[in-house]
């Protein structure tokens, strides 16, 4: 089944889970699309089975809290950042709920966490104005970059380069094999005083970069030339909430939630809005991602919703 405008418009909430007592900060699908793990301000990590559509187990990080969370390449391990005590990143085995390793270094909140799609490296960006490159096998930071402002960062889908959005006004691209030489491309964007960049993602085909903000607009850039291809607005975000925006896996569409519980979808190429979906969320939709392998997506406020299409094309 192929994603089209009509299929997207037909998506409806299939299941709602009320496992959390506070807002969901982040979630991540496993690369095979079979599970999703969420982190919440109630200090819990909830693991869901996407195929059976039910929660499998709940783990707690009472001492450190849990903010950003990402699966590693081993099916039952995650890295996550904390929102209590310190800003150390933790590597957790879900299988036996034991820490495998700690990654200390950041001294302010971690705002970006991205796992390499090809190996055991990951990058983190923080309000301490640094980006750190790590290897899961070592507690020591492999590369430390001091920046002129707050960063958002991500690997490209091939794991050859990473992009850093700095100070909400420029995007720098680094080659992983020679980042000591500095960025090989820098794209300067018009600075928008009304909002800050809160996320950066590549499309799966590597051609586009999506910049999300804590305001009422997101932008798509040409990943090679840096030109702004589209600016999307018209969704509610008056309180400066960090709303996650995502590409669909085929790189054709961009979606974002809003503070009024609705999901807006645009065609990434034409820039046309194709769908407005009502998730009936009780709060702002802070998390939104499409399943990498199956025709379903998830959205979250303090509840988690799984969506399915209601037509077959």
Automatic annotation (TrEMBL):
<keyword id="KW-0853">WD repeat</keyword>
<dbReference type="InterPro" id="IPR001680">
    <property type="entry name" value="WD40_rpt"/>
</dbReference>
<keyword id="KW-0806">Transcription termination</keyword>
<keyword id="KW-0805">Transcription regulation</keyword>
<dbReference type="InterPro" id="IPR015943">
    <property type="entry name" value="WD40/YVTN_repeat-like_dom_sf"/>
</dbReference>
<dbReference type="GO" id="GO:0140744">
    <property type="term" value="P:negative regulation of lncRNA transcription"/>
</dbReference>
<dbReference type="InterPro" id="IPR019775">
    <property type="entry name" value="WD40_repeat_CS"/>
</dbReference>
<dbReference type="Pfam" id="PF00400">
    <property type="entry name" value="WD40"/>
</dbReference>
<dbReference type="InterPro" id="IPR020472">
    <property type="entry name" value="WD40_PAC1"/>
</dbReference>
<dbReference type="GO" id="GO:0110064">
    <property type="term" value="P:lncRNA catabolic process"/>
</dbReference>
<feature type="repeat" description="WD">
    <location>
        <begin position="103"/>
        <end position="144"/>
    </location>
</feature>
<dbReference type="InterPro" id="IPR037867">
    <property type="entry name" value="Swd2/WDR82"/>
</dbReference>
<keyword id="KW-0804">Transcription</keyword>
<comment type="similarity">
    <text>Belongs to the WD repeat SWD2 family.</text>
</comment>
<keyword id="KW-0677">Repeat</keyword>
<dbReference type="GO" id="GO:0003682">
    <property type="term" value="F:chromatin binding"/>
</dbReference>
<dbReference type="GO" id="GO:0071027">
    <property type="term" value="P:nuclear RNA surveillance"/>
</dbReference>
<dbReference type="GO" id="GO:0048188">
    <property type="term" value="C:Set1C/COMPASS complex"/>
</dbReference>
<feature type="repeat" description="WD">
    <location>
        <begin position="17"/>
        <end position="58"/>
    </location>
</feature>
<dbReference type="InterPro" id="IPR036322">
    <property type="entry name" value="WD40_repeat_dom_sf"/>
</dbReference>
<feature type="repeat" description="WD">
    <location>
        <begin position="235"/>
        <end position="276"/>
    </location>
</feature>
<dbReference type="GO" id="GO:0006353">
    <property type="term" value="P:DNA-templated transcription termination"/>
</dbReference>
<dbReference type="GO" id="GO:0032785">
    <property type="term" value="P:negative regulation of DNA-templated transcription, elongation"/>
</dbReference>
<protein>
    <submittedName>
        <fullName>WD repeat domain 82</fullName>
    </submittedName>
</protein>
<keyword id="KW-0539">Nucleus</keyword>
